Amino acid sequence: MTPTVQMASRTDSGLASELRLSVMRLSRRLRGERQPDNTLSVAALSALGVLFREGECTIGTLAAHERVQPPSMTRTVNCLVEEGYAARRPHAKDGRQVLVDLTDMGREILLADRRRRDAWLAQRLRELTPDERALLREVAPLLQRLATTS
C-alpha cells in the first residue's frame, strides 16, 4: 500500500470511528428525550414510523424496512395492535398476508414523540453558531445517504 492510500485508510477509519461514536451518542440522547409516559419500545416506535411514512404494509415489508426477521416484526405488530396503535386487516388479493396500518392513536403517539425529540434537538441547535448550523444542513443529507445505503 502506498503511503497516500495508507494515510487515507487510517483517516477514513478514524472518521468512521468518530462518526459511529457521535451518531450513537446523539441517538441515545434523542431516545432519552422520549415522552415520559410512552411505554413503547424503540422497535415499536420505529415500526410506527415506517407505517407513517409508507402507509399500510405487510409484515414482511415492515420487517424489510426495519431489517429484522418477519417473526420479530410479527411480535412487534402484535404488541402495537394489542395497545391500539396499529390495526390489521386481511390482504385483499393474498389471503395468506395481513396488512398493518396506523390507528389514530398510533399516529398521535408517534407525532407527540417526534415533537418532543425535535424540540430538544432544535434547542441544542440554537446553541450552535450560524456557521455550525449551516455545516450541519450540508452534512444531514450525507448522513441520510449513509444510513440508507445497503
Walk me through the structure.
By secondary structure, this protein is mainly alpha-helical. The protein has two domains: 1-32; 38-148, Arc Repressor Mutant, subunit A (Orthogonal Bundle), CATH 1.10.10.10. The chain is built from six helices and three strands. Helix 2 (42-54) crosses helix 4 (70-83) and helix 3 (59-66) packs across helix 4 (70-83). The relative contact order is 0.10.
Which features characterize this protein?
single chain, 150 residues, mainly alpha, Arc Repressor Mutant, subunit A, 2 domains, 3-stranded antiparallel sheet, 6 helices
Counting structural domains, the number is 2
Mean pLDDT metric: 90
Helical content class: over 70%
Question: How does the helix and strand content classify structurally?
Answer: mainly alpha
Radius of gyration: 19 Å
Provide a short characterization of the protein structure.
The chain is mainly alpha-helical and 150 residues long. It contains 6 helices and 3 strands; from the N terminus they run ααβααββαα. Helix 2 (42-54) crosses helix 4 and helix 3 (59-66) packs across helix 4 (70-83).
Any chance you could write out the topology, listing elements then pairs?
Elements: H1 3-32, H2 42-54, E1 57-58, H3 59-66, H4 70-83, E2 86-90, E3 98-102, H5 104-126, H6 130-148
Antiparallel strand pairs: 1-3, 2-3
